[in-house]
Design brief:
The structure holds two protein chains of two kinds. Helices cover about 75% and strands about 0% of the residues of chain A. By secondary structure, chain A is mainly alpha-helical. Chain A folds into two domains: about 1-50; about 60-280, Orthogonal Bundle (MetI-like fold), CATH 1.10.3720.10. In chain A, helix 3 runs antiparallel to helix 8. Chain B has two domains: about 1-45; about 80-290, MetI-like (MetI-like fold, Orthogonal Bundle), CATH 1.10.3720. Chain B has helices spanning about 1-45, 50-55, 60-70, 80-110, 115-125, 130-145, 150-175, 180-185, 190-205, 205-220, 225-230, 245-255, 260-290. Classes of the chains: A mainly alpha, B mainly alpha. At the A-B interface, helix 1, helix 3, helix 4, helix 5 and helix 6 of A face helix 1, helix 4, helix 5, helix 6 and helix 7 of B.
Chain lengths: ~280, ~290
């Protein structure tokens, strides 16, 4: 009997560690960013200066917040038709057929490619292509990094959407077919309405992934600390400014980078919590 | 009547067109993976030789003379391979036992309010960007434990990343084990800890190892958190308190050095091959256990 109690206590204490790590993370990020928020106040969030010159140091996160959201939204818009089609291909049109297994495996492979390899591919293959097309003189920018981000998040959106589409009961679909509906009509009137919230959630989770991507974006976005003016302009994201500027940072600059990390943490946590909440309510 | 036939034709045509669009867009989706892998193989294979696995990275001058003479760049990525293995091993030691135990806890307490909180927290942790975990490990380990960039700091960042993945995969695996197996153990009077160690974990072993391998393959290609914590090293370093290289860190260094560009493809090919092998093994294990 005693050993049973002991086991339970050990299990419980272990479960505490993840709560400790999570709250410790918030505590440390908040503690590290106190200096930045004390110096700049709430202005830190909505100004876009980034001036590391000693004596007149001035930092604001707006350029990076804007860059992060614009690249991720663009990536999501590119990813949406592709991932949805692939999910329909695997989960509906060629369900349980060998070809869908091949496509599914290849999409899974996309998830296995390290971020830095995507960055290299974007730099050496996609960027010259964009220069050749005359879309931007250097090939860097929101557009290039957004395309690569879209490819990177496709597997996340596809795998959950496929599961959700497969979960739609067959008798609902068969009822529509028996009324003479075509496959397209079944998809738009039965499948999508039934799987709507799950598909929506899968794209929210994919969006969350895009927000936090670092290496591929750093290599392609051009690292200009300004609010991007167009789709082909250069910019910077929260994750990539941390990676870029961290090496030489201390004092106020370090604190500002940590503050950006805190903001990124909060945004992604909220996005993920929303996605998980929708999935939970759906299933 | 003709109207009905007409609308019927339009509907059929729309249906067909949509099927084509789906097929074409799916093809476009899988196209990048073909492009990326072929690019890695075409550009990377010629640098892969014995020295690639047994020597440390060359310096810029050596690489420059080799490239201008038309030779392959001498040296290899041993420092990166050793560092990656060291840090992944350390991260595994930190994350696997703890993750499995917490997973067991969640499985045993499905309905408790507190367990739901733990579950939600680990779900949120799964979505934390890796660069933020790098910052955390910098603040905790680099600043206060090793007082400098170190393998331990890199491993901590990777370990925090692995932990929620292992927790959730353990819980999902255990959920699939029939309760009767556990109950049979209790009926025989087997103590609780022995049921966990001798019944639950062995029964779910293949699922657990799949989850662990997938978690490792997720962190092995991480670059950003290591830039903030492990920094990199020219030499093979097995001291956990010293800066350490890793394969993705080396790729980043090669990328930034115009003379070493030829090495990025072979290193990426190696890294990618490693990740894919882990993925394939874990899928094999999962497929076997389903039979």
């Amino acid at each position: 009997m005693k050993s049973e109690k002991l086991t339970k206590v050990i299990l419980f204490l272990s479960s505490l560690t993840i709560l400790l790590v999570a709250s410790g993370m918030i505590y440390s990020l908040a503690g590290g960013s106190v200096l930045a928020f004390k110096t700049f106040g709430i202005k830190f969030i909505y100004t876009s200066v980034w001036n590391p010159t000693e004596g007149s140091e001035n930092y604001g996160a707006l350029a990076f917040i804007a860059g992060t959201i614009i690249t991720s939204v663009f990536a999501l818009l590119v990813c949406l038709p592709l991932a949805l089609s692939t999910a329909l291909f695997i989960g509906e049109y060629y369900r349980d057929k060998p070809v869908s297994r091949i496509v599914g495996t290849m999409v899974d492979l996309l998830a296995g490619i390290p971020s830095i390899v995507y960055g290299l591919w974007g730099f050496y293959v996609l960027r010259p292509l964009i220069v050749d097309l005359g879309l931007s003189p250097q090939g860097y920018g929101i557009f290039t990094s957004g395309i690569v981000l879209a490819i990177m998040i496709i597997p996340y959106a596809t795998s959950i959407s496929t599961e959700i589409i497969k979960m739609v009961p067959n008798d609902l679909k068969e009822a529509a077919y028996s009324l003479g509906a075509t496959r397209l009509e079944v998809i738009t009137n039965v499948l999508i309405p039934n799987a709507r919230s799950g598909i929506f959630a899968s794209f929210i989770l994919a969006f969350g992934r895009a927000l936090g991507e670092t290496m591929a974006v750093t290599m392609l976005i051009g690292n200009a600390n300004v609010v991007p003016e167009s789709l082909f302009a250069t910019g910077n994201t929260m994750a990539s400014v941390i990676a870029n500027q961290f090496g030489e940072a201390d004092g106020l600059k370090l604190s500002s980078l940590i503050a950006i990390g805190l903001l990124l943490f909060i945004i992604t946590a909220l996005i993920n919590a929303a996605g998980k909440f929708i999935i939970k309510r759906f299933s | 009547m003709t109207d009905i036939i007409k609308t019927g034709n339009i509907r059929a045509a729309k249906n067909k067109a949509f099927a084509w669009i789906v097929a074409i867009l799916s093809f476009i989706t899988i196209f990048p993976i073909v492009l990326i892998i072929s690019k890695l193989i075409i550009n990377g294979y010629k640098q892969i030789n014995l020295a690639f696995f047994t020597q440390v990275g060359p310096d810029t001058m050596e690489a420059m003379t080799a490239v201008s003479g038309g030779h392959v760049i001498p040296g290899g990525i041993l420092n990166g391979i050793a560092g990656t293995l060291l840090m992944v091993l350390l991260a595994s030691v930190m994350a696997i036992p703890l993750g499995v135990i917490i997973g067991v806890y969640l499985y045993e307490n499905t309905t408790k309010r507190y367990a739901a909180v733990v579950r939600d927290v680990s779900d949120v942790m799964q979505g934390v960007p890796s660069i933020v975990l790098g910052l955390i490990s910098y603040l905790w380990v680099v600043k206060h434990v090793t007082h400098g960039y170190s393998a331990l700091a890199g491993a901590s960042a990777l370990g925090i990343m692995m932990l929620p993945l292992i927790i959730r995969s353990t819980e999902e695996t255990l959920k699939m084990i029939p309760v009767s197996i556990k109950e049979a153990g209790f009926a025989l009077g087997v103590p609780y800890h022995k049921i966990i160690l001798r019944v639950l974990i062995p029964t779910g072993f293949s699922g657990l190892s799949t989850g662990i391998l997938l978690a490792i393959s997720r962190v092995i290609g991480e670059t950003a958190p290591l830039m903030l914590t492990a920094l990199g090293s020219r030499m093979v370093n097995l001291n956990i308190e010293q800066p350490t290289s890793a394969v993705p860190l080396l790729i980043w260094e090669f990328y930034n050095d115009p003379n070493m560009v030829d090495l990025i493809w072979s290193s990426s090919l190696f890294l990618m091959g490693f990740v894919l092998t882990l993925n394939i093994i874990s899928k094999r294990i999962a497929a076997k256990s389903k039979k």
